[in-house]
Design brief:
By secondary structure, this protein is mainly alpha-helical. It is built from 14 helices and no strands. The relative contact order is 0.18.
Amino acid sequence: MSSTKENFNFASAKVDGENDEDYNPFERRQIRKANSSIGTLIHLVKGSLGTGILAMPFAFKTGGLVFGILGTVLVALIYVHCIHLLVGTSQKACKRSRIPVLGFAETAENVFANGPFGIRKFASIAKAYIDYILLLISYFSVCVYLVFISTTLQDVINYELQIDWSTRIYILLTTCAVALITQVRELKYLVPFSLIANSSIIVVFIITLFYIFKKPVTLSNLHFWPELENLPSFFGTVVYAIEGIGIVLPVENKMKQPQHFLQTFGVANFAIGFITVMYNIVGFFGYATYGEDTKGSVTLNLPTDELLAKSTQILAAFAILLTLGLYYYVPMEILWKKIGHKIPERRHNVAQIGIRLAIVVAMMGLALTVPKLEPFIGFVGSIGSATLALLIPTTLDTVYRWPSGFGWMKWRLVKNVVLWAFGLFILVVGTYFSLMDIIALYE
């Protein structure tokens, strides 16, 4: 988190007569419990290598085996480059404004406040925009997880009890548990939940790989290249699966040696390289194993008549349920900072309970409207992850460098425009096709 005050005047932060080179923000960070480079690497891998990896076989189903590998590598390269843009811009902004650390939204505010004169008035809007996008993607993710948990319970319980309850019934039941766990407000109380959830996900991942490699791999009747209309869904799913941009600056800001983050063989490159290899392995072999029957989460393809597979599905749903408290923590912190001061202090407790419950109920209503996992993943990946991971980092780098910091023939500007166009493609076209898939569910 940023150490700056909310109303800090970024434009006047620099001291007259002092050169940027005189200030090293890394030396002025006061961190009580700094993370080592290895610890930061683990956090960064954990931020991306979550349940999204279980959606990679579905991404390969829409993209094809060959294009799936190439497309995943392409997305990973673009994503790690955008990490470099975001962190690099934040570090340079800290140096220019003589501030030790800046968070995601604070970086945007700083860059715009010190940018071209015509856009400086949008600094506060840029900060608010990122906050609201983080809120949007976080709450939409709750919908994805509600549908995932409910679909998993439906597959297992309906089979075991020989009943035919719809996904919507399980969404209603799951919401009761989610409403309870999202009432936990203190981060320290969520640590045990996260430990259990992380351990469970590791077990789920190992058992899922066991089932994937258990069957002989055959490439017959599988497609190698995508149909044109499936491209947005593929990119949206991969971006959603691999993207963890929201935690990048928080973990970099907590590093003991932050200069290691952006090195050629540093934390960012190594983490995303490792994740890319894992995603390609699971995506390729998951689709090769289950073919056109591949579902939004590969755990839903595990056999329902085997105890190990059923326990894995339940364990995956349980892990997601426990993780929801942590996913809820960050957006609620952002939201409460915006509205908490408007509520009388004596009513803070009641207000917190009511707001947390109301948002869960609203997300339940959305999940009831679209009780299918696949369109939700593409939708969230397109509308949220593309904005945070692609559009915002390239925009901030462009504004910071304007007008003469783009190098020979303004190649950096051309590169940023291309990346921005790719992000816009995922945002607009991916959102459109995801909405069409959602609408098709009711036709």
